[in-house]
Amino acid sequence: MGLNKYLLKNTIEAGTDEAGRGCLAGPVVAAAVILPMNFKHPLLNDSKQLSKKQREQLRPLIEEHAIAFGVAFVDESKIDTINILQASILAMHKSIEKLTIIPEHIIVDGNKFKPYKNIPHTTIVKGDAKFMSIAAASVLAKTYRDDFMLKLDVEFPQYFWKKNKGYPTKQHREAIKEFGVTSYHRKSFKLVPNQLKLDL
Q1: pLDDT in tens, 89-132
Q2: CA-CA distance, 45 to 3, in Å (whole number)?
Q3: What's the mean per-residue pLDDT of the chain?
Q4: How would you list the strands of the sheet with 28-34, edge to edge?
Q5: Which of 10, 77, 86, 149 has the highest CB neighbour count under 10 A?
Q6: DSSP reduced 3-state for 104
Q7: Nearest-angstrom CA–CA distance, 125 and 166
Q8: Are 43 and 54 in contact (CB under 8 A)?
Q9: Is 28 helix (H, G, I), strand (E, B) or coil?
């Protein structure tokens, strides 16, 4: 069972998705991709099922064969200012803005989106497991974000971002307890479970 190539026929359709929404640190990253009608690749399937190696293999192929693609970052200070849902939508809008071809329709992973300019859109829950362009956008968003977190890991190795990419693993939370927070942590998130209990 392969992915669907598009939702609307004979339409320039862009798929968009984000990565890093549930992280405690780092940006939320979104991508938008317009694929040619004849694009297919055996690896491009539900992006969550892909290994790191498979995602890394797919990224240059997607970038080479896509009619257009865009990737955008929204950093932690903006996330803290406007909240993670709004920041995710903003990142998706920014990634669509970077497309060199204006899509006629946008398909969005998830169930929350705000209209972008006056382009019609459709939200699709688990869209990255259903549509090729969303799966491709998911691969780009995830690989660009992972690369960024690897760079931050060099600066702050004690948080193990190389491994956890900023997600709330036990190890990450323990490091926050021990070392406190960095400028890359999202201050509006509950960073450690007992954050509100202060030892007075």
Answers
A1: 999 999 999 999 999 999 999 999 999 999 999 999 999 999 99
A2: 6
A3: 93
A4: 68-74, 28-34, 13-19, 105-109, 121-124
A5: 149
A6: coil
A7: 24
A8: yes
A9: strand
- Residues forming beta bridges with residue 57, ordered by sequence position: none
Task: Calculate what percentage of the chain has a pLDDT beyond 90.
Answer: 84
DSSP per residue, 52-93:
HHHHHHHHHHHHHH-SEEEEEEE-HHHHHHH-HHHHHHHHHH
Pick the CATH number of 13-179 from 1.10.10.60, 3.30.565.10, 3.40.50.10860, 3.30.420.10: 3.30.420.10
For the full predicted model, state whether its pTM sits above 0.90: yes
* Residues 133, 12, 109, 29, CA torsion sign: positive
Q: CA–CA separation, 91 vs 94, rounded Å? A: 5
Give the DSSP letter string of 144-196: HHHHHHHHHHHH-GGG-HHHHTT---HHHHHHHHHH---TTB-TTS--STTTT
